[in-house]
Amino acid sequence: MKRKAMVSHVTGALAALACAASFPAILTTSAAAQEAAGDPAAGERVYRQCATCHSVAPGENRAGPHLFGIVGQSAGAVEGFRYSRAMREADIVWDDETLTAYLIDPLGFLPGTTMRVGLRNPDDAADLIAYLRTLSTE
Fold this sequence. Notes:
By secondary structure, this protein is mostly helical. 53% of the residues lie in helices and 0% in strands. It has six helices and no strands. Helix 2 crosses helix 6 and helix 4 (96-104) packs across helix 6 (122-133). The N and C termini lie far apart (64 Å).
């Protein structure tokens, strides 16, 4: 094979490899986006497990803070609720990633939190987050 043809062949093979290597990342991102989307109606049903400790009415705190407008909010920011030291000092904004991690394993995500009950199913977390997104004035 002539040098010019070999360089072209190798360059083409490297480009194909780079493209193939990025394909799993594209699939992962797409799957993560689909998971994050969740189903608000299913999330409202999941919320029933949370309702003993959390209200969705603005300003109505229970054993836990109300969840109205929680998505996009900084951790420990609900007025009138007495947070654990860990939560007060956490530098967290509640987005899909942080909420999912916290909802699945509260103590593992934020040692020292007072929330002890987590969701076992990541799909339930995605659905709950989708429901919580509907609870805002924006």
